[in-house]
Amino acid sequence: MAEELIRRTAAELAGALTRREVSSVEVTRAHLDRIAAVDGTRDADGVATGPGVHAFLHVSAESALAEAAFVDAARAAGETLPPLAGVPIAVKDVMTTRGVPTTCGSRILTGWVPPYDATVVRKLKESRLVLLGKTNMDEFAMGSSTEHSAYGPTRNPWDPTRIPGGSGGGSAAALAAFEAPLATGTDTGGSIRQPASVTGTVGVKPTYGAVSRYGLVALASSLDQAGPCARTVLDTALLHAVMAGHDPRDSTSLSDPVPDVVAAATTMDVSGMRIGVVRELHGDAENGSGYQAGVLRRFDEAVEALVDAGAKVVEVSCPSFTTALAAYYLILPSEASSNLAKFDAMRYGLRVRPEGVSDPTAEQVMAASRAAGFGDEVKRRIILGAYALSSGYYDAYYGSAQKVRTLVQRDFAAAFAEADVLVSPTSPTTAFPLGAKLDDPLSMYLQDVATIPANLAGVPGMSLPAGLADEDGLPVGVQILAPARADDRLYRVGAVLEAALRGRWGGPLLDRIPEFPPLGG
Amino acid sequence: MTTTVAEPVRDYDEVTAAFDPVLGLEVHVELNTATKMFCGCTTIFGAEPNSQVCPVCLGLPGALPVLNEIGLESAIRIGLALNCTIAERCRFARKNYFYPDMPKNFQTSQYDEPIAFDGHLDVELDDGTTFRVPVERAHMEEDTGKSLHVGGATGRIHGADYSLVDYNRAGIPLIEIVTKPVEGAGERAPEIARAYVSALRDLLRGLRVSDVRMEQGSLRCDANISLRPKAAPGEDQSAVPFGTRSETKNVNSLRSVERAIRYEMTRQADRLLSGQRVVQETRHWHEDTGVTTSGRSKEEAEDYRYFPEPDLVPIVPDPARVEELRALLPEPPGVRRKRLQAEWGISDLEMRDVVNARAVELIEATITAGATAATARKWWTQELARQAKTSGVELADLPITPAQVAALQALVDAGTINDKLARQVLEGVLAGEGDPKDVVAARGLKVVSDDGALGNAVDRAIEANPEVAEKIRGGKVAAAGALVGSVMRDMRGQADAAKVRSLILARLAPGEADGNG
Lengths: 521, 517
Hints:
The structure holds 2 protein chains of 2 kinds. Chain A is α+β, with helices and mostly antiparallel strands. Chain A is built from 17 helices and 13 strands. Chain A has a single domain, classed as Amidase signature (AS) enzymes, CATH 3.90.1300.10. Chain A is globular and about 70 Å long. By secondary structure, chain B is of the alpha+beta class. Chain B is 38% helix and 18% strand. Classes of the chains: A alpha+beta, B alpha+beta.
């Protein structure tokens, strides 16, 4: 029963819960048992030890079971509950959770327990989802592998020697390892989509402003966007509907009504839709060298599947996308250097007294705490950003990057004049081995070459499984991009593609995942 | 602060003979909005430390700012009142620097896109002439928290055992008003600086956007001053390049503005005349000793790494709303003062007394409530001013309303009470005994005008003062005053003096009685 429960989709679980075929306590316990079985252990400092997925930084077993029991009681009392009531969910550790530790994968937030819930978390609670715990991530969402987590990397359930993507590798791995049916993510340059791609799961970065950023610990304010992660397009849509909506606490929040993404995920019709293949993101242009052959093969098949479903394919060109990565790596560190200034040991988090100073000043304590509390990648980006913003360099760096950003927006506008959605491989490669790119930040950054343009322009994007690469048998993701505020198109196209590729692969891709090596085995 | 060695200074006349001063004034105004600039926290002055805070103004991870719309409107109104252009579109920026009382380690401020720019303020000087101070910009920002350094001798960070931070002030809306370099002030630079801050304070008070209390820090002034050589006769002074400036902080009263600038001019002049250079730096004004001392040098200026605030959307004021706000602006204080002075028919000197007593609004309201200009002014600038001084409160804070003052005067005019009784009624009102008529009733202070009672008192007075009575009978009508005084004493002041006088004259000099009784 438990083994069967954890493999169900959120939609299936919601149906079974509504029909009272199963209780939320049973569903929750099944997932907590699964976490206990495969996630592994952590030492007193929270650092991963021994084998295991290590998707979770914190598991709230007690409060999860308590909330599940409340939901069951409410249902038994005949209350009308929201659609996903009683379904468990994992929350990325970048979202503040009242009374539950929030670290952002950083040593500097060790021991911090937020006094408030992020708007997204509040919405999950109001929709009566059951919060299982907080998932691992690259420190402050800086990275594409979760190796930059101060608490040790998460392992890819397809192959424990490989990365699960990042920064949201914890959420993606939790889904692929059947530790949770739903998870939240945030995507600043691909942190939802790339982990989805390399774990064979689905993730959506909504239109900028569609989901409130209140309570998301900011990496780069103008790029960050929270979104849903799941194993199917429909589940992703169900979670999207819960998370999105205007929030008066976020000035950049959109006031438009949320597009009906759930309806779009069940339309199952793309006939006549124009699918734009972006030349610059297809690997045969200048960027070609970085794309794995198996990735391109699965991508081409996905495009064919859409054609078979009645869509029309057009090739579009977005020349600015080749410089988008460079612009992104100026804008992101600039904003991050300022956003991360608040971590100064004065009000919360880690405080370190400088060594060899008997009577340290506040500045010395700040410096010592930041030196000890931030990892190398965070320091690298803070230094990059502080440099890019400094007087005399601002125009050349930040100013120029903003101009590129405008060009990227124009390229998108032109492309969407010719196509209803754009498609590309999500990531140039499948999951790479742990440690392979740690000493080469630039090659790590290149993981996000196809996902970054959407963040720069604020448009929505989805990654969904396209199959397994021939050469390594690992999942490949296909990315769909839509115009701003047309998030529903992602689901309309995504659902059709998902169904078509399942036909080709004989069922959900995750049915093919090897059983995760048992702990201590 | 360690003991400061007083720096040499020059005689002021020597300074102004050799140099032309250029002023620059930066005034920070705390708005009196009910909530902070970017969150819903209250802004009550003097509340328990850290009792008016939330995730936003504490800069907790994940919190986001939302602009206070009232704060924005206040900024626009200030800009309009300063004759500024209001930006069609502007943004906030982040000013990045580390300091423990800054929760986010950046201040949300405006940088190259202020809400208001290119204005001026006409300032009236002591001799009645007007000087136009050019205004560069007025921009919005948030205040920081307040550090309290505990231990050590001076209350300053150096030598303190530890420091406490109160974040109640963090996020309170501030408007920073910056002048352009003020040229042509000459030897009147200190006076012009004071008059500018004073005029600005009046203007802000009239707009009702701030408490403008310098002593509480809701209006703070930084004074920049530089000296340049005086141009030779017939040459263009404005063609002479500016000198190096110093910026003086902690200038917390109007008098200090004038003194600090005057001091800085004499200090800078000494350096220049003795062959040294002026260091570009921040200086700290000491009210007690009347000198400035060097703070941090600005020559290795901090790089604030400004960039547009990505957590806030650009501000695009609705032009129709801006015009509406412009139309609703109060009359400028200078214009209004001139109009009232003419209406009240008083001299420049008398008007200045009224202004200095902060009685303009009170007198105006008293007149509106029915009093004449002369009586309203008399009450507020004399008896009530004395009461305020005795109790050590602002005139406006006395527990009496302009309507009550007008009601009091109406009782006098109707003859119900006389001037002497009126003062007693006033005391009753100030003591919280109610409106003037209530005090009159409760204390039984009504003037006695009953002929019988007064007649008996008059008879007693004549009897008691036969010599005076004889003088009056002999035609010395002026001597009646002594008998009036005697009757008033007898009646404990509660007599209608005019009536008493006419009764006396009717008895002793019937030909002089005017029949008013």
